[in-house]
Write a structure and sequence with these properties.
Layout lengths: L2 H8 L52 E14 L5 E7 L8 E4 L3 E8 L8 E3 L22 E7 L4 E6 L4 H6 L4 E6 L1 H9 L7 E9 L12 H4 L11 H10 L5 E4 L6 E5 L4 E7 L6 E4 L5 E6 L2 E9 L4 E4 L2 E7 L7 E3 L4 E6 L8 E6 L7 E5 L5 E6 L9 E9 L52 E8 L10 E2 L5 H17 L28 E4 L3 E8 L5 E5 L4 E10 L10 E6 L7 E4 L9 E10 L16 H4 L22 E5 L2 H5 L3 E7 L2
Parallel strand pairs: 1-4, 3-8, 9-12, 11-23, 24-27, 26-34
Antiparallel strand pairs: 1-2, 4-6, 5-7, 7-8, 9-10, 12-19, 13-18, 13-20, 14-15, 14-19, 16-17, 20-23, 21-22, 24-25, 27-32, 28-31, 28-33, 29-30, 29-32, 33-34
Length: about 675
């Protein structure tokens, strides 16, 4: 019996009528029974990397109900020593939760930690009061239980994590995978040779451990809450953690250092990859193997994207030294919180091993100058940014398979990815990029007010003790946006000539999250089709994450007003993106001086669920579930996160130290 027939019989599914038309399949509503049918789809011989699934305690085929307990535990690193961690159900990463489109997911969170916590369902489109952010609910106190309940709307790779003291709780281990499926998509991919037998979820992370004690190094955010005399970290150590994000000295794949995975030669592997690190950009590659990205944050793409492996090249600043190829198109690059669904086919001689490798990327790390007392006196660029040596993250052992007698250097010619990919009818990939007006007029654009949702990522100069204030909002934002647009237009028309003057953020008064209120929050109405204008003023890259809705990337403009004295012309570089749904995106860094250079990333977003109206499973959130206003749980006065009374939808940098220090804001979504 083939895998599709087995899959369908084991789950008592509704018949799928037209498998030959892959992208128009109707869903069959499936759920694993208590006999453990899902285990048949996993390669349990790979127990070093397989994430233990959560137990579904509900017999109803349309309900997935699980229990998660957050508590302190210990884990072992490759040094053979125990390390303090925080975990869901005693495991790092947390249990794998799986559900199908149309299912109701119920999760009972019990908090046995010494402080309050919550669960944010990262990337999941759900009712506002179920979002788990600190604007949608009060923290779950120690010893208490909170129940999350929502309907599964979109098939994609997601993850879950806390949204209270996020940078500390995630880094200590509180993160787990959430895979929301459309069985019709799975069946169609299986027809093309990509079946669940060879599917794997990979949570990529790092930990910053003390070399002597093997325990987590103190968190800069917590250190700043102490009296200076009680701090364990120096001002420089605090500043490095906060400015660059907390990068660990140990890299982990599914909670382990360099685990082993067994694969069959010539058999397509599907990996769902999640970057759960606080600050590390995960740029990964498999030597000698192409990868094909078939999906991301919001599910399958329209077409697969070919990814070349990363090779070592000569360092232009030190020709005798080899570094990772700096071309960001090589390898798979995931900023913190981003996901990718990739396929690759192993093709080396039986018994050989290759490695999933991490490669460095020049993303704008900083260093600091200090005085004789160790206090911060200045901010500079890290000269080794992008030049760190590659690190092996997972060993891939190649066993006998279909290609064993004829090892190839490229993807076997008899393997073809579907074109287009079998995107579900329950979450169709509807292109809305043409429905927004980037010129801000709104004329002739249906359901579009013509107004941008402006985001301004920036930070202040570091203070002497290492503290750094970040922001994503400003006062007088319309004036700042107008000034940026005017200078950008000047650069477009300057034919390379230097543009005089400079622009913000001063004197536009940065507003870090602690002082953001409803006057600063962004306004939107249910049913609007708008765009974000995400401006990055900094010399570093930042991952922007938006709650509640997927967006579609349109373009990024990298703007430089020029520097005639140093022979640098004014310029605008345009970066375009494939059609896809995302909830997190990497905002490129400026290339010149502050006020003379910036980047603008434009994203289209629809503030409703109308693209799912053709689904037979009633996957449309009500206006009450979508509405979020007020900047705090129970923003209209109840003090609780009840339906229609959530405190706004968050957006923030997902370098967790940056959001913790103020690079966060929210938008109020109101009734039409």
């Amino acid at each position: 019996m083939n895998i599709q027939a087995y899959f369908f019989l084991r789950r008592s599914l509704i018949v799928i009528s037209c498998l030959s038309v892959l992208f128009t399949l109707n869903i069959s509503h499936l759920k694993a029974d208590d006999s453990g049918s899902d285990r048949e789809h996993r390669n349990d011989s790979n127990n070093q990397v397989t994430i233990k699934p959560a137990e579904d305690v509900n017999p109803d085929p349309n309900i997935v109900e699980v229990h998660l307990t957050a508590a302190e535990t210990t884990i072992k690193t490759a040094r053979g020593m125990k390390t303090k961690a925080w975990a869901y159900n005693g495991q790092v990463p947390g249990p794998l939760i799986e559900a199908n489109v149309g299912d109701t997911l119920i999760v009972h969170l019990t908090n046995n930690l010494p402080e309050g916590t919550s669960i944010h369902w990262h990337g999941v489109e759900l009712p506002a009061e179920m979002d788990g952010s600190h604007l949608s609910q009060l923290e779950v106190p120690p010893g208490e239980t909170y129940t999350y309940k929502y309907k599964v709307l979109n098939p994609a790779t997601h993850w879950y994590h806390p949204h209270f003291r996020t940078n500390e709780q995630i880094d200590l281990g509180l993160a787990g995978p959430l895979i929301l499926r459309d069985p019709a998509e799975d069946a169609a991919l299986a027809e093309a040779g990509i079946d669940r037998t060879n599917e794997l979820t990979l949570m990529l992370d790092d930990m910053l451990l003390d070399d002597k004690t093997n325990q987590p190094v103190a968190f800069a955010s917590a250190q700043l809450e102490l009296d200076p005399a009680e701090r364990m970290l120096s001002p420089e150590e605090i500043a490095l953690q906060i400015m660059n994000g907390r990068e660990g000295n140990i890299l982990l794949t599914n909670g382990k250092q360099t685990p082993s995975l067994k694969v069959r030669n010539g058999v397509a592997q599907r990996w769902r990859i999640v970057n759960v690190a606080n600050g590390r950009f995960m740029r990964v590659s498999i030597p000698g193997h192409k990868m094909y990205r078939i999906g991301g944050d919001g599910g399958l793409l329209k077409e697969a994207i070919e990814i070349e492996p990363i090779e070592l090249v000569s360092d232009p600043d030190d020709p005798g030294n080899l570094i990772s190829d700096p071309d960001p198109s090589k390898g798979l690059l995931l900023a913190p919180s981003e996901r990718a669904d990739i396929v690759f086919v192993p093709h080396k001689a039986d018994g050989n091993s290759v490695f999933l490798e991490w490669h460095d990327y020049k993303r704008g790390r900083h260093d600091f100058s200090t005085d004789e007392n160790g206090f911060i006196t200045g901010l500079g660029d890290d000269e080794q940014d992008g030049k760190k040596p590659a690190i092996k993250m997972m060993q891939i052992k190649i066993l006998e398979g279909p290609s064993s007698q004829n090892v190839m250097n490229n993807m076997p010619s008899d393997f073809h990815l579907p074109s287009p990919l079998p995107r579900s009818e329950h979450s169709p990939l509807v292109d809305i990029r043409g429905e927004v007006d980037l010129q801000n007029s709104g004329e002739g654009i249906p359901n579009n007010t013509g107004k941008a949702l402006p985001v301004f990522f920036g930070h202040m100069q570091p203070e002497a003790d290492g503290a750094v204030t970040f922001f994503s909002a400003v006062e007088n934002r319309d004036g700042l946006l107008d000034a940026i647009r005017a200078k950008t237009a000047d650069a477009e028309n300057a034919a390379g000539a230097e543009i005089p003057g400079m622009v913000g953020p001063p004197p536009f008064m940065p507003r870090p999250f602690a002082v953001v209120n409803n006057d600063v929050a962004l306004p939107a109405k249910i049913g609007d089709v708008l765009y974000w204008d995400a401006v990055n003023f900094t010399g570093a890259e930042h991952p922007l994450h938006a709650h509640g809705f997927f967006f579609q990337p349109i373009e990024t403009l990298v703007v430089h007003l020029g520097d005639a004295e140093n022979g640098i012309p004014s310029s605008i570089k345009k970066i375009t993106y494939p059609l896809e749904y995302k909830d997190s995106i990497r905002l490129p860094a400026r290339t010149g001086a502050l006020g003379r250079s910036w980047t603008i990333t434009r994203l289209a977003v629809r503030f409703d669920d109308s693209h799912r109206m053709t689904s037979p499973f009633d996957l449309i959130r009500t206006n009450e579930q979508l509405a979020a206003f007020g900047g705090m749980p129970g923003g209209t006065g109840t003090g609780t996160g009840s339906i229609g009374d959530s405190g706004g939808w968050l957006f923030h940098c997902h370098i967790n130290e940056h959001s913790d220090q103020g690079m966060m804001s929210y938008y109020n979504l109101t009734q039409p």
